[in-house]
Amino acid sequence: xxxxxxxxxxxxxxVSRGGTLLLDISSFLIHEGEIFSLIGPNGAGKTTLLQTxxxxxxxxxxxxxxxxxxxxxxxxxxxxxxxxxxxxxxxxLFDTTVFNxxxxxLKIRGMKRGGIHVKVIEQLERFGISHLxxxxxxxxxxxxxxxxxxxxxFALQPEILLLDEPFSxxxxxxxxxxxxxxxxxxxxxxxxxxxxxxxxxxxLRLSNRMAVMNEGKIVQIGFPGEVxxxxxxxxxxxxxxxxxxxxxxxxxQSGGTFVTSIEGQExxxxxxxxxxxxxxxxxxxxxxxxxxxxxxxxxxARNVFPGRIVKIISLxxxxxxxxxxxxxxxxYVTNHSLExxxxxxxxxxxxxxxxxxxxxxxxxxx
Amino acid sequence: xxxxxEGIKKAFWLLVSFDPEVMGITLLSLEVSGIATLISxxxxxxxxxxxxxxxxxGKRVVVSLINTGMGLPPVVVGLFVTIFLWRNxxxxxxxxxxxxxxxxxxxxxxxxxxVMGITLAAIQQLPQKLRLQILALGATRLxxxxxxxxxxxxxxxxxxxxxxxGVISEVGASIMVGGxxxxxxxxxxxxxxxxxxxxxxxxxxxLGIILLLxxxxxxxxxxxIQQKERPR
Lengths: 366, 232
Hints:
Distance between the termini of chain B: 53 Å
Number of helices of chain A: 10
CATH architecture of the largest domain in chain A: 3-Layer(aba) Sandwich
Strand content of chain A: 35-45%
CATH class of chain B: Mainly Alpha
Number of helices of chain B: 11
Strand content of chain B: under 5%
Low-confidence stretches of chain B: none
Radius of gyration of chain A: 25 Å
Largest interface: A-B, 23 and 19 residues
Order of helices and strands of chain B: HHHHHHHHHHH
Number of domains of chain B: 1
CATH topology of the largest domain in chain A: Rossmann fold
Oligomer: heterodimer
CATH superfamily of the largest domain in chain A: P-loop containing nucleotide triphosphate hydrolases
Shape of chain A: globular
CATH topology of chain B: MetI-like fold
Radius of gyration of chain B: 21 Å
Structural class of chain B: mainly alpha
CATH architecture of chain B: Orthogonal Bundle
Strand order of the largest sheet of chain A: 6-7-8-3-9-10
Mean pLDDT of chain B: 89
Number of strands of chain A: 20
Order of helices and strands of chain A: EEEHEEHEHHHEHEHEEHHEEEEEEEEHEE
Largest sheet of chain A: 6 strands, mixed
CATH superfamily of chain B: MetI-like
């Protein structure tokens, strides 16, 4: 028996609607037991991929193999679909009690009443909604309803669980609580899961492997740490939160460090590049420190630039500061620091970041 | 005023004593309209669901036709059914003109678009993704349709009530194709028209009261349904 046989494999999948190519994937596989996330902006094709995967979106070109066997005839499609379970962004519960909702999948799949009862109770408990068992689904809050939807899916003991932005319509505290519980349950049951989200932090937290999608294609696939810190191109870099993306040419190079010229400024970074090569430098805003003339902050950073604050956007718990240092730079600043340094739009400041904090994407010789 | 009071007094007596003629007319009304509603239910719900769930060229036209059909004037229906069942007409050999059967046919034609239209709207109002969710749970196409019908059960019940309410109170088509024959094809509405024109206000009022009670009952059920349909 081949233990390394992926549980799911898609080959040469393409989906077009009305002349537009919605999905174009040459190869995609999932290993048993892994939690795989699909991230990307809206319209990237994440939902299309999930729906194609579960044969909900037809027609499409290409082949799907479940445990090595191709899924094709009408009968095998139904059989295959009954090995999966899917949870959507909206709970999509039926107009009946929570108990009946959680039981609905089992009933559809033909399980007997006695067996259903046991399984439903188990899931209600697991998701902490036993006390809601007899309540009408209409009376549930967003979080409770989504828990019921998850319980319904887990009751089916799917071989693969698919989740399409399951937490997007929940408020932050509800979302956090549910993500924590789901994480725990996925580990406990060792369920293989594929979920789509536009929240990279959620993906970072829950998944073993991640794929970044854009315009119907998978742009990068790998371990979360890899994808987040070593994006292959500007699109991925931008999506994983690298707000500052600059293109320039390497003008100095020695040992493992090099200097890139960007808009007349020189930025030092670490990497193995050639002189004259075009590179894209990406800097995370959390790695940029701001200081004013009056503050005494010394810095060991090699990259220090005077600049002017162009815009400050409040993100609630912290502020996003857009600067112009000859080149555009984005920094995150805590509310406390904002006050302490009296940062306002138009103010002149000093921005600094370490050479090691710069992510380099090589673009090759010009 | 004498007339009215006398009428009401006699009507009350007819009702309380279960006057056989009045009861006969009432039962026939219920039978004819009941069967017509049942048939329109079968045709209307199955067609409504099918159109709602399918995608095809000209769907908009079909939906408009159905919606127009909901407002079909009963006398026009009566006219066309009469023509069809006329002695020399296409279906004349069945010889069912001026029979309860003809009334059932006419009332079915009136009620079916109503049931179809409301069913169509009810199914289309269900969240788009619900179909996907049901299929994702492993349902066959048939199971999915059944679950969607169950989900829309309240508006569908309203459709049935609307259909029934529409035909039990209609008079034009029923007179034209039924002939209002005593003890045979005389129903509440047709009898009321006749008795009123003869000045027999006691019977007319009795029949009128029954019709009002039926209308009230239907309205009661519909209101209950409306109140239960809270937004999700």
